[in-house]
Amino acid sequence: MNQNIRSKTWILLGASRGLGRSFAELIALNQPQDQVLVASRKSNWSMDFAKKELWPEYIKEIQKKQASHILYFAGGGPFGNFAEKNWQDHEWTFKVNFEFPAYLTYQLAAENKVNSNKQLEQICLIGSSIAEATADPGAASYSAAKHAQVGLVQSLHKEGSLNFDLRLFSPGYMDTNLLPPHAWPRQKSGFVAHPKQIAAELYIWLQDVSKRNTHLVIRSQY
Asked: In the chain, how many domains are there?
């Protein structure tokens, strides 16, 4: 191993499947000197981002790892008529898709202001090029959360007060179990991408230091 290459620690939140898992595999393949830590409901490092009472504990655990890069992949929500779904399902969606990543960003930004010697270089949140930019019938709460995430990130970019690189990566439809087998995007040729394709684009973009504090939107055409 090249001794001049400094190893880094990547924390991937909600990365037990789909895009997150594909990205973890890319890091392991291309940067074997780095440490990759995955936290989710289904990993050895268990975190349930809908449990608001545990958020302070999660932040402490994350801070102890002294990560250089943190990516937040967790997401999802109910599909169907808004009023016909349980309000608890909408609350889950708001917490997982917006409230926890906002809380995470806030806490780490506050910590870095107090201690500028922290290792954190980059936080990347995962958006949705469809749900965050237009109406998404059948996924109102998910769309609302993704719209909120865009507003948060763009506003923080304008503030210019963060001392780490905050990015938002917004892919289109992907071939995961979050997209039902008979969903309409699957009927359109080239409209649904494989997570490995999207992970490769994410990986390349994150390495480009000229893209610091930016938002990359991936259109659904493959």
From this structure: 1
